[in-house]
Amino acid sequence: xxxxxxxxxxxxxxxxxxxxxxxxxxxxxxxxxxxxxxxxxxxxxxxxxxxxxxxxxxxxxxxxxxxxxxxxxxxxxxxxxxxxxxxxxxxxxxxxxxxxxxxxxxxxxxxxxxxxxxxxxxxxxxxxxxxxxxxxxxxxxxxxxxxxxxxxxxxxxxxxxxxxxxxxxxxxxxxxxxxxxxxxxxxxxxxxxxxxxxxxxxxxxxxxxxxxxxxxxxxxxxxxxxxxxxxxxxxxxxxxxxxxxxxxxxxxxxxxxxxxxxxxxxxxxxxxxxxxxxxxxxxxxxxxxxxxxxxxxxxxxxxxxxxxxxxxxxxxxxxxxxxxxxxxxxxxxxxxxxxxxxxxxxxxxxxxxxxxxxxxxxxxxxxxxxxxxxxxxxxxxxxxxxxxxxxxxxxxxxxxxxxxxxxxxxxxxxxxxxxxxxxxxxxxxxxxxxxxxxxxxxxxxxxxxxxxxxxxxxxxxxxxxxxxxxxxxxxxxxxxxxxxxxxxxxxxxxxxxxxxxxxxxxxxxxxxxxxxxxxxxxxxxxxxxxxxxxxxxxxxxxxxxxxxxxxxxxxxxxxxxxxxxxxxxxxxxxxxxxxxxxxxxxxxxxxxxxxxxxxxxxxxxxxxxxxxxxxxxxxxxxxxxxxxxxxxxxxxxxxxxxxxxxxxxxxxxxxxxxxxxxxxxxxxxxxxxxxxxxxxxxxxxxxxxxxxxxxxxxxxxxxxxxxxxxxxxxxxxxxxxxxxxxxxxxxxxxxxxxxxxxxxxxxxxxxxxxxxxxxxxxxxxxxxxxxxxxxxxxxxxxxxxxxxxxxx
Length: 792
Description:
Layout: H1 2-31, H2 35-46, H3 56-82, H4 87-93, H5 100-117, H6 122-132, H7 139-153, H8 170-191, H9 201-210, H10 212-224, H11 230-248, H12 251-264, H13 267-272, H14 274-280, H15 290-307, H16 312-317, H17 320-334, H18 340-357, H19 362-376, H20 385-402, H21 405-409, H22 414-418, H23 423-440, H24 447-456, H25 458-461, H26 474-490, H27 496-510, H28 518-536, H29 552-567, H30 572-588, H31 592-608, H32 613-629, H33 635-650, H34 655-665, H35 680-705, H36 712-726, H37 734-749, H38 757-776, H39 778-784
Helix pairs in contact: 1-2, 1-3, 2-3, 2-5, 3-5, 4-5, 5-6, 5-7, 6-8, 7-8, 7-10, 8-10, 8-11, 10-12, 11-12, 12-15, 14-17, 15-18, 17-18, 18-19, 18-20, 20-23, 23-26, 24-27, 26-28, 27-28, 28-29, 28-30, 29-30, 30-31, 30-32, 32-33, 32-34, 33-34, 34-35, 34-36, 35-36, 36-37, 36-38, 38-39
């Protein structure tokens, strides 16, 4: 290939040298006004264009040099005409050139001056030139010759309003000239593919593609002719152009020229000739990229409708949607081997067209999706990644247009299209739907819509049999499930019965999610249900005896089932928290048996599932905190549950954890706003027990480490003493507080006590607090008056 390229460079250099040499002599002849020598050397110069050795790219370089010289020659001919030289004689004279190619280039050049002189009608000269150019049938040479003819004549067409306009038929002649030149150029361009050996076909196609604008310029010239109105376009221009496009049977030419037609002619013309234009698409070669051309047509028509609201009645009048839909069906039928990507792209473009032009016609959108379903039915999941991306684009279009998934849910074929997506792409689409809901803050408020929505989202909600755990990216999975959780929180309805139905539907779907999903999806469902419980709180329990009525009891039964499913995974920490939340909600509804059941389940989880010491401490603090807030329990239930909690506290592994849990239990026996829950003796019992455990922790530390450890536990217990002392617990006396302060002072002065700046600061702060309460005066100051808060 390198050798061929070098040869081409040599041939080009030789041709350019010959051209420049003859151009030099031509300039000298023109400077001395020697017409005959100018014609002689110009013909010799143009003979260099007769070469067949150059590739189109190199030939173009040579042609452009010759073109520049011809422009100078044209100026010389104009000056000769002004000096009295007969342009008619000159037109005859150049036809005596020895070779046909130079002769025709000179003829076109003189013809341009001839038209400008107006000594003969422009239409006659143009007709003569376009006919004479038939003499060159070599594809490359003929193509550039006709390109030159197009170039020099484009501003001299006998158009309406032009200075070259003649009688009534001149417009037809102008159009005929351009169409004839276009037809011949296209034939030459198509024939180029057969020039040379078969092995170089790909290279030739690439070279042909580089020359496409030479042919396309004719269509641009046509579009610029002022006199072409809609009738002429419909009756003459479009049928003739389409006839040439279809008959050439060349994929490259058909694709390019159809694209040209769509780009250069006005949108209103396309709309009024839609049927004729669309009829050509099924007749194109199977290898033509029809999806791109048709998509561009639909995009242009959509933009036209958006920019010109007055055009909307025209779209209805010509039944644009129906014609486009039928055309796409015929194209797909005519190309049975069209890949899935092509078909989906066409339907996606049609849907976007429908949404832009007829946003109120949801039946059109559903019809497009129905056509898509029909096209792919029986073919299973679509595996082509480009096709699935287009399906996502198709499914996203209604969401983007209406900013509401509720509208998309009205499309009966929407979920059927989603079924063609593989698992991963289905998840992507489900995420797009959720993002749309979040972005637009869409409220899905009926059970029917929630059912339809969750059917669409099953790729995110339900475990797929085909998915292997190793394939799942943990971060992506968490993000997906968190988005589902946010969605569950957004479902709402002010009517309790409807909201309960929604909760039931969500429960049905999320319980199919498998062990990895439930920890993400159960909590939002629980809290959404508890929100409904709060809404019903205080209402009379089923006043009319209606079995269908939504009651807190029914909701708690559902919650129990949901959390039981979570327990089976197991995630005991989370399940325990949810049981306690439900217990607190049952407490607010005065449902003692329900609250007691939830606490019982929480205790069972604690005993059977939670074995890690840190997890036990956290769980026990939650249990104690929740139990302390409960007011619904009778004496028997409360004693049972409190006894269990204190028992768990004493069984914790680490002594500091035991101590803190035991003194936390003291709050279970003293609740401020409930007089029947103030048992000072049992509070004191807890605090004394905590002191014994703290002392045991000191001794254990002394035995194992040689030092008694920090006094922080004693300071914490002192603060509990002060709390209950202020609350008026008669069992907490000044003497007991004083003895505890002295105990801490003694321990801190003991040489074996480990230095702990944090504990020292805590103790100092506690003493300052006692001093502050003393100085306050009043009843509280009097209470604290006899406590000696010195630290020595």
